[in-house]
Amino acid sequence: MEYFTLNNGVKMPMLGFGTSNLKGIECQNAVKEAILVGYRHIDTASSYYNEKAVGRGIKESGINREELFITVKVWPSHYEEARKSIEDSFRRLQIEYADMAIVHHPCGNYDACYQTFEELYHEGKIKSIGLSNFSIPQIQHFLDNYEIKPTLVTVESHPYNSQYILQEYLEKYNIVLEAWYPLGHGDKKLINEPVILELSKKYHKSPVQILLRWHIQMDHSVLPSSKNLEHIKDNFSIFDFTIEREDMAKIAHLNNNQSYKVFDDEMWNKFLDWHPDFDDQE
Question: Rounded to two decimals, what is the model's pTM?
């Protein structure tokens, strides 16, 4: 495993296990197996409706809590009750603190959420604060107005959308860029790009492993997800090779700023209108 040292001194694994599409016993088993394979960063959110299953998987792994890096998120319609949201996540996950708490989307009263995160940070209940899908001007707002600076920003990123401008900005503040849709939302076109297939043969790694290693060498935090044990193992096996500089340059030519998910005012309004009971899960 390779690690980031966040701008507040906290160590974070570069590779984590994502759970956004996993539910119930399938999620529980996948989390347990991922931890036993060697993953130490587990990413979840109240809106994934799987925190209870993630918590059971963590417990069944038998690994000490102190060895894990656990990320939680607060949904926009819950920003004004962020403390309760975080405490409910802790209860469902069977944990007493989170290593990362993320403001899930840039809509609604996200300042209220961030202010609560600062309080929880000083209380030791969260170890670092992150943002999800925030733009550069919005990120600058937090840097200018809050004592505790964001340590991570998670956005859609893959070779079709490398986020070079955002990453250059974040590097000035030692803020980590974390990639969601790291494989291009499973786009077979990306996985079968000639340059990816060429490098797969050269390095004797699968196209998916090439893409995940590209993220690591781009200094991205990356969170692949799978319910398949062999895929979980394969996704973890990316620290025994290095993509050469000229090959990284070849992958760079794939960038065309393509997004698979576009957020707009209609979607933000839907997020704010959704007031789910996140306890209603397996």
Answer: 0.96
